[in-house]
Amino acid sequence: EIHHGNMRHTVFIGESEKTRVPVGTHAFAVGNTGIALMCDFHCKQAGRGHTHFVYCHDQAASVEKCTACPADGKRHQTTQYGPDWKVPKDELQHDAYWTA
């Protein structure tokens, strides 16, 4: 069962320090938290095709060493994302994130 709430554990990431993530009428900078947003509002604004990012369970430095990927709707990062640039991440499509 999915429980929606505020995004208090969310940190917006990007490919550079200049990246801005638009949500409604606001743009979040890399490193901003999502505590002011409700997750269902954010996902509705972003559309069903958006991507969620999670820390790589294996802390794998490469896709070859990531055991969670490839899977339906999941893949190891295709680039480094900040604000914590050196921490490996996995990219999950919206539906894969909510069924993980």
3D structure, described in words:
- The chain has about 100 residues and is α+β, with helices and mostly antiparallel strands.
- The chain is built from 2 helices and 7 strands, in the order ββββαβββα.
- It has a 3-stranded antiparallel β-sheet. Strands 1-4 form a two-stranded antiparallel sheet. A two-stranded antiparallel ribbon has the order 2-3.
- The radius of gyration is 14 Å and the shape is globular.
Give the strand tally.
7
Helix and strand composition category: alpha+beta
Compute the separation of the termini in Å.
11 Å
Which value, in Å, is the CA radius of gyration? 14 Å
* Strand and helix order: EEEEHEEEH
Share of β-strand residues: 25-35%
Q: Classify the oligomer.
A: single chain
Number of helices: 2
